[in-house]
Amino acid sequence: MRKLGLVAVLVLPLLMCGAVHAQEFDAAFGLGTLTAPSASSASGDHSPVSATGGAYPAFSADLLLKRRFGVSGELAWRASQNLYAGFQPYRPLFYDFNGIYAPRLGKHAVAEVMGGIGWESLRFYQGTLNCGVTGCTDFVSSNHFMGHVGGGLRYYFYGHFFVRPEAHLYVIHNNVEFSSPHATRFGVSLGYTFAPGF
């Protein structure tokens, strides 16, 4: 979580400065779940463990710069630890940074289509502290580069507040810990749009 805090401290001021000159800045918090191929469908180069299940809270933000195009980022993580192969506690986190297109579909609706890159961080909890230069943790991480495509539909139900059903596909490089390099997250987010003259 220290990395997340450092990223937030470095990126948030840039986003806020850009938001002053942008058409729109949106922030949202949501909840969803993850689906992935079953453990029985694992090929020879993947472990027979499925990533399916669990509740996934998510934070997201986007900055629309011109003609409804912009940049976005999000973080989703499994709310509770799961057992890997029935014995090892673990938790996956998904970080991604995207280009986004968000056309208006009338007075109360906006579509979102995004694509980009990111990484999956699998945290395997050891039950003991591991200390290094930056501090101590009780987990060991396995990180994987990934591609991301996603979309959603914002519905503005009250002023600048919106609800957004959404879906995200992760294509994870070298994801040998699970039955497949693919995972899909479905969820719903509640958000707010910061925009002058909205």
SSE order and pairing:
Blueprint: H1 2-21, E1 24-35, E2 55-66, E3 69-77, E4 82-84, E5 88-101, E6 109-132, E7 135-158, E8 161-172, E9 182-194
Antiparallel strand pairs: 1-2, 1-9, 2-3, 3-5, 4-5, 5-6, 6-7, 7-8, 8-9
Descriptive overview:
This protein has 198 residues and is mostly beta strands. The chain has one domain (2-194): Porin (Beta Barrel). It has an 8-stranded antiparallel β-barrel with strand order 1-2-3-5-6-7-8-9. The protein is 10% helix and 62% strand. The model has no long low-confidence stretch (mean pLDDT 87). The protein has 1 helix and 9 strands, in the order αβββββββββ. The chain is elongated. The two termini are 34 Å apart.
Widest β-sheet, arrangement of strands:
1-2-3-5-6-7-8-9
Level of helix content?
A: 10-25%
Distance between the terminal alpha carbons, to the nearest Å?
A: 34 Å
**Strand coverage percent:** over 45%
Mean pLDDT: 87
Order of helices and strands: HEEEEEEEEE
CATH topology (fold) name: Porin
DSSP summary: helix tally: 1
| Largest sheet: number of strands, sense, barrel closure | 8 strands, antiparallel, barrel
Model regions low in confidence, pLDDT < 50 over at least 5 residues: none
Number of domains: 1
- Can you name the CATH architecture? Beta Barrel
How would you sum up the global shape?
elongated
The Rg value, from CA coordinates, equals: 18 Å
- CATH class, named Mainly Beta
**Which structural class fits the helix and strand makeup?**
mainly beta
The number of distinct β-strands equals: 9
